[in-house]
From TrEMBL, chain A:
Reaction equations catalysed: L-cysteine + O2 = 3-sulfino-L-alanine + H(+)
Name listed for the protein in its UniProt record: Cysteine dioxygenase
Taxonomic source organism: Electrophorus electricus (Electric eel)
Organism ancestry: Eukaryota, Metazoa, Chordata, Craniata, Vertebrata
GO molecular function terms noted in the UniProt entry: cysteine dioxygenase activity; ferrous iron binding
Pathway(s) served: Organosulfur biosynthesis; taurine biosynthesis; hypotaurine from L-cysteine: step 1/2
SUPFAM superfamilies: RmlC-like cupins
Family to which the UniProt record says this protein belongs: Belongs to the cysteine dioxygenase family.
From TrEMBL, chain B:
Repeat found in the keyword field: yes
Pfam families per record: LRR_1 (PF00560), LRR_8 (PF13855)
Record-given protein name: Leucine rich repeat containing 58b
Keyword Repeat: yes
PROSITE patterns: LRR (PS51450)
UniProt keyword annotations, A-Z: Leucine-rich repeat, Repeat
Organism in which the protein naturally occurs: Electrophorus electricus (Electric eel)
Top-level taxonomic group: Eukaryota
Length: 191, 351
């Protein structure tokens, strides 16, 4: 029986099957997940049906619910679209670019007593990442869209967002623009 | 380089993109195919010119010539009377590259991002049906006042340029829903933005803004506002210089506040016009007006309990206080009473 870590995912469906296998175990090897995500070669015709863009802001499009152990989703970023500074509650976040580029800025956790600008840790252009902690992700291109594949384990529905100027934090509920290729109705979106 | 017709399975789409070719010859495309084609993809080649024969595609509605080496657009493109969408991103085009009669086209969507425009060409401002205009990532130094001619405009993307001021006329666009001005050098937003009733999303991040006009609160449709990367003032600035009002201003204030009647028979027309320009002091306890002489006052407003934005408005004298608080001294502190209701501006991306 072959180990999941040695198989290169040929298709998006193949990747999902391998991920399901990996997450059957209770203990997950972070590096294994990272390698599998990296190994998938992006083929637009496979993920195009999930890549629904919105003119005004980036969208989160659910691809697979991972039997409750993980969420796999595709984010679509129009020109200039960016996220707020956010954490991932206590989940692991794996990110891989399928098209275009994203800039990631990592931040120090603000001291609850301190006021004033949040401290930037680092900035880089992403191809893929496995991040813990606070970051802002942006498509800084004025000409190209970006599409990224995200895996979160365990899945989470709330996270904190931060005001860069003051470190003030806020809990927000995450919503999906579409699920499994179908646009989710407006009434189910809040923030 | 000769091209084969069977490039795409769908009859009205002709895909000649990503062929790495530096010239195109449409001779091999049959008459019927030329007439049937509605969508023509020529992006990601190495074209230096767009062939004149482009006009053979008489029913063309969508043309993508992005990611080539074009430095000029041929005049024959103006013969494509049904063209609705033109994408020409990432070329070497500037305002001198556009054909003279370009403004006669019936375009609805125009994307010239990633080029070398230093000015918005006059021909673009003739496009009455234009709904979406993108000139992101160019070298624009300003926005012309004639932008108000684009009365159908809903989407305007000008991010990544060198713009330092915004003309008041931009606020005259009645259907503008999405306005992107990020990554520029903008120092202030005109208070006339209050007229942009349809504005849903405003992108201002990475500019030189220190405050916003108070009038921004009246944009009831606004759901997204990005302000990160601006040097927004965080504390009230106490020293605001105040020029004493002129005699003309004092006379004007008296006439207005005492409701003295006047007509064109009493006064020369330039004074009538001056009196019509009176602005009401926002302080509800003050029935005063002001003309040119006023105090700029910065007020911090809480948005949904999340973010504090510095908003600026004008008061008629230093003795007047902001409508937001009864005690002018409290403006010096960080805590404010005024807050915007939670259903407004839910997605302020300040953070």
């Amino acid at each position: 029986m072959e180990q999941a870590g040695l198989v290169k995912p040929e298709t998006l469906d193949g990747l999902i099957k391998i991920l399901h296998k990996i997450f059957e175990n209770d203990i997950i090897n972070v590096e294994e997940v990272q390698n599998i995500m990296e190994a998938y070669a992006s083929k637009p015709q496979e993920w195009m049906k999930f890549a629904k863009f919105d003119q005004y802001r980036y969208t989160r499009n659910l691809v697979d619910e991972g039997n409750g152990k993980f969420n796999l989703m595709i984010l679509c970023w129009g020109e200039g679209h960016g996220s707020s500074i956010h954490d991932h509650t206590d989940s692991h976040c794996f990110l891989k670019l399928l098209q275009g580029q994203l800039k990631e800025t990592l931040f120090e956790w603000p001291d609850r007593k301190a006021h004033g600008d949040m401290v930037q840790k680092s900035q880089r252009i992403l191809k893929e990442t496995n991040s813990i902690g606070l970051h802002r992700v942006e498509n800084v291109s004025h000409t190209e869209c970006a599409v990224s594949l995200h895996l979160y384990s365990p899945p989470f529905s709330h996270c904190q967002t931060f005001d860069q100027r003051t470190g003030h934090r806020n809990t927000v509920r995450m919503t999906f623009w579409s699920k499994f290729g179908e646009r989710t109705p407006f009434w189910s979106q809040l923030l | 380089m000769e091209l084969f017709e069977g490039a795409s399975g769908v009859e009205d789409v002709l895909d000649l993109s990503h062929l790495n070719s530096n010239s195109l010859n449409f001779n091999s495309i049959g008459d019927k195919r030329r007439k049937d084609t509605r969508h023509l993809h020529l992006s990601h080649n190495r074209l230096m010119v767009l062939p004149d024969s482009i006009h053979w595609f008489t029913n063309l509605e969508f043309l993508d010539i992005s990611n080539n080496g074009l430095s000029v657009i041929c005049e024959d493109i103006t013969r494509l009377t049904k063209l609705k969408t033109l994408l020409a991103k990432n070329n070497r085009l500037d305002e001198f590259a556009m054909p003279k009669e370009f403004g006669t086209l019936q375009l609805q969507v125009l994307n010239f991002s990633g080029n070398r425009f230093e000015e918005i060409p006059a021909q673009f401002l003739e496009l009455q049906r234009l709904q979406s205009l993108s000139l992101g990532g160019n070298r624009l130094k300003s926005i012309p006042a004639e932008i108000e001619k684009l009365t159908s405009l809903e989407m305007l993307y000008l991010g990544g340029n060198l713009i330092s001021t915004i003309p008041v006329e931009l606020a005259s666009l009645p259907f503008l829903t999405y306005l992107v001005l990020c990554d520029n050098r903008i120092q202030s937003i005109p208070p006339q933005f209050t007229r942009l009733h349809s504005l849903r999303s405003l992108s201002l991040h990475n500019n030189l803004l220190t405050y916003l006009p108070r009038e921004i609160l009246s944009l009831v449709q606004l759901q997204e506002l990005s302000l990160r990367g601006n040097p927004l003032v965080v504390r009230f600035v106490k020293d605001m210089t105040y020029d004493p009002p002129s005699l003309l201003e004092l006379a004007g204030r008296t006439i207005k506040s005492r409701n003295l009647q006047y007509s064109e028979e009493d006064l020369p027309s330039h004074l009538i016009r001056y009196l019509d320009l009176a602005s009401k002091c926002p302080n509800p306890k003050c029935a005063g007006v002001y003309f040119d002489s006023c105090v700029r006052h910065i007020k911090f407003v809480d948005f949904c309990g999340k973010y504090r934005l510095p908003l600026m408005h004008y008061l008629c004298s230093p003795e007047c206080s902001s409508p937001c608080s009864s005690n002018p001294q409290s403006d010096a502190d960080s805590d404010d009473d005024q807050s915007v209701p939670a259903d407004r501006l839910q997605r302020v991306l300040l953070g």
